Amino acid sequence: MSILRSMQDQDLAIVRSWRNDPRIRSCFFSQAEISISEHENWFIKKQQDVNNYLKVFELDGQAKGFLQLLCIQRKPEIFEWGFYVAPEHLGQGLGKLLVRSAIEFVFNDLDAKKLIGKVIQGNIVSENIHYAQGFKLEGVLRNECFVYHELKNVLYFGLLKNEWRK
Ligand SMILES: CC(C)(COP(=O)(O)OP(=O)(O)OC[C@H]1O[C@@H](n2cnc3c(N)ncnc32)[C@H](O)[C@@H]1OP(=O)(O)O)[C@@H](O)C(=O)NCCC(=O)NCCS
């Protein structure tokens, strides 16, 4: 059985180890390694932010992935997500389970009207996962980030609540 639960202090070490893995950090806007103190400060700040939700994805009681949801607009509610699975489980179908639970949570529990995902162009797995869940490509943000000093475009994906196929 899989669930999404709130991230807690005891998850800090494992989430940091996932986020610092080169296979994961190369997919995010900042590829720098995160120190223990940076990670702890980030967690404290996020916990105080009512627009932020940090979740751990569990499969059969074991932590297997991480999800961040940020409310970027109210009325209508629009959320942006970021997620990853434990690097040792990449490509085993867990990402699909995680994103399906996340979409259900966003639309059912948070009453979002729209979910957006920003994907660095070339992250084919993430692009595919967005298309497979019914997201539409709404735009290409040109030269929006560096990945290891190389400028990259960012793909802006959107999924509307009324387009969501449960
Ligand atoms: C994106 C991520 C969560 C997907 O999780 P995963 O467990 O590796 O992926 P899954 O095995 O569940 O596969 C889900 C879908 O991704 C796509 N996919 C998976 N592996 C792929 C590959 N090697 N090549 C192309 N597409 C692939 C497919 O569409 C697949 O669906 P399908 O099996 O029905 O064809 C995971 O790869 C990850 O953590 N990546 C690093 C962080 C990241 O990119 N996060 C998203 C930032 S926007």
Describe this structure in words.
The protein is of the alpha+beta class and 166 residues long. The protein has a single domain, classed as Gcn5-related N-acetyltransferase (GNAT) (Aminopeptidase). It has 5 helices and 7 strands. It has helices at 12-20, 22-25, 36-47, 94-109, 124-132, and strands at 2-6, 52-59, 62-73, 78-85, 114-120, 136-147, 150-160. A 7-stranded mixed sheet has the order 1-2-3-4-5-7-6, with helices on both faces. The radius of gyration is 15 Å and the shape is globular. The structure holds coenzyme A (COA). Coenzyme A binds at residues 24, 27, 82-85, 90-96, 117, 119, 123-126, 128-129, 132.
Strand arrangement across the biggest beta sheet: 1-2-3-4-5-7-6
Strand content: 35-45%
Point out poorly predicted stretches: none
CATH topology: Aminopeptidase
Task: Please give a handful of descriptors for the protein shown.
binds coenzyme A, 7 strands, seven-stranded mixed sheet, Aminopeptidase, alpha+beta, 166 residues
In brief:
With 166 residues, the chain is of the alpha+beta class.
Question: Which helices and strands, and how do they pair?
Answer:
Elements: E1 2-6, H1 12-20, H2 22-25, H3 36-47, E2 52-59, E3 62-73, E4 78-85, H4 94-109, E5 114-120, H5 124-132, E6 136-147, E7 150-160
Parallel strand pairs: 4-5
Antiparallel strand pairs: 1-2, 2-3, 3-4, 5-7, 6-7
Coenzyme A binds at residues 24, 27, 82-85, 90-96, 117, 119, 123-126, 128-129, 132.
